[in-house]
Amino acid sequence: KTNQQWGGRFNEPTDAFVARFTASVEFDQRMYRQDIQGSVAHATMLTEAGVLTVAERDMIIQGLADIRADIEAGRFEWSIALEDVHMNIEAALTEKIGITGKKLHTGRSRNDQVATDIRLYLRDEIDLILLEITRLQQGLLGLAEQEADTIMPGFTHLQTAQPVTFGHHLMAWFEMLSRDYDRFLDTRKRVNIMPLGAAALAGTTYPIQRDITCKLLGFDTPAENSLDAVSDRDFAIEFCAASSILLMHMTRMSEELVLWTSAQFNFINLPDRFCTGSSIMPQKKNPDVPELVRGKSGRVYGHLFSLLTLMKSQPLAYNKDNQEDKEPLFDTIDTVKGCLRAYADMVPALESRKEYMREAALRGFSTATDLADYLVRKGMPFRDAHEVVGKSVAYGIETGKDLGEMSLAELQKFSDTIGDDIFDVLTLEGSVAARNHIGGTAPDQVRAAVKRGQEKLTQR
Ligand code: ARG
C-alpha cells in the first residue's frame, strides 16, 4: 500500500528504512497545538471564502479539538508512516470525521503549514523566555540592592584593579541581560509574520483571505512573498543567535561564580541545594549549576552553526533540508529555558562572604589609582602621579605593606605633596564612594541603578 497522503503517483510503498529516515514525527509532534491552531484558522478562513460550508468547518474544528484532547490524554498513536505531525493529525481527522477531513488541506501545503507552526511555536516560547529573563533580572536587582555597600576587588586581566561594590558587579550582569531581553523581543517581530497562504511555493488558486488567518493566529502581517514565506528560516537563526549571546553572558556569570565559590576566592556561598558532592572526596561541594550552564553554551553555539549551514546555498523555495531546522531550534529553546530557570532560582540565594571580599580588596594595591588621582587634585600632572604611585607600590611589595598601611612619613618619601588627608582616599569605602556618577560603582549609584532597573522591568 502506498502512502495515503501522496501515494497516487507511486507504484510501490516507501522503503521501510527510508520511511523512518525521512520522518520527523518523533520531534515535530511537540508542535501539535500550533498545528491544530493553524488548521482551525485555515478552516475558518476557507468558510469565509466560500470553500467550506459552515457545517464542514464545524466538523473539522470539533474533530481537531477531539484530536488535541486525545494527544493530551496520551491516547493518540503517532505513526512514522505518516511522516510528520501535520499528516498524522490530518489522517486522524479523516479517520474521525470522514471525508470532510480530506477537505482541510484545500489551498494549503505542508510547506506553509510547517513554517506557520514553527513560528507560532517559537513565538510562545520566546514569550516564556522573556518572562524568565525578567525573573532572573528581578533576582539580580534584589541582590544588588542588598549588596550595594559590599566591597570587593574589581579585576582587569583577573588581577586586582580597583575596589568595586558587589552590587555594581551584579548590575553589570543585569545590563547584559537587558540587551538579551531586547534581542529576543526584536527577534519576535520577525518571527510573528504569517507564511500561511503561500501554499507550496506560489500561492493558491482559491480565494483565500490571508488577513483573516493572520488575525485569527495573532500574526502581525502575512508574509509578503510566497517563495520567501515557505523557505525563510532567518527567524530561527536569529533566535539561536540571540540565544548564543545570552548563553555567552551566562558563561561569564558562571565562570565568576565558579571562581568565587572556590576556597581560594571564597567570595560566595552557593546554597547546598544548587550544588552536588563527590563520590570519592568527602569534603567536596561543587558548583554544578554554573558549570553546566557554562558547558551548555556549546550546544547552543553549535545549533546556531547547524542552522546557518542548513540554510546555506538552499535554492528557493522549500527543500526537505528544512526539516532539519527543528531539532536544533527545539534544543536551543529547551536549553535556554533550563539555564534561565536554574539561574533565576539560584541568583537570589547567593550569599556573599563580605569579610573575604573585603580582605581580597585590601590586597593588591587596589587604591593605587585613588592615590594618583589625589596627587592630580593637588596639582601634579597625571603621568607624574602615575610614576610616584608606581614607586610607592614597588616599596609596598618589598615591605609587604598595602598603601593604606603605610605611615604618612613613608608615603611622603615618594611625594611631599601627600598630606594626612590621604588616608580617607586610601580606604576602600572612600575609593568606591568617590566614583559617584551615573554608571559608577559608588553605593548610592548602585541604588539609583537598581531603581532605574526596577522601573525598566515594570514597563515590560
Ligand atoms: N516535515 C516537513 C518539515 O518539517 C514538513 C514539510 C514537508 N513538505 C514537503 N514538501 N515534504 O519540513
UniProtKB/TrEMBL annotation:
Record domain Argininosuccinate lyase C-terminal: where: 365-433
Pathway involvement of the protein, from the record: Amino-acid biosynthesis; L-arginine biosynthesis; L-arginine from L-ornithine and carbamoyl phosphate: step 3/3
One GO location term (cellular component): cytosol
Domain Fumarate lyase N-terminal: start-end pairs: 8-302
Locations listed in the record: Cytoplasm
Name of protein: Argininosuccinate lyase
InterPro entries: Arg_succ_lyase_C, Argininosuccinate_lyase, Fumarase/histidase_N, Fumarate_lyase_CS, Fumarate_lyase_fam, Fumarate_lyase_N, L-Aspartase-like
Main location per the UniProt record: cytoplasm
Family note: In the N-terminal section; belongs to the lyase 1 family. Argininosuccinate lyase subfamily. Belongs to the lyase 1 family. Argininosuccinate lyase subfamily.
EC supergroup of this enzyme: lyase
Organism: Neptunomonas qingdaonensis
Single GO BP term: L-arginine biosynthetic process via ornithine
Keywords: Amino-acid biosynthesis, Arginine biosynthesis, Cytoplasm, Lyase
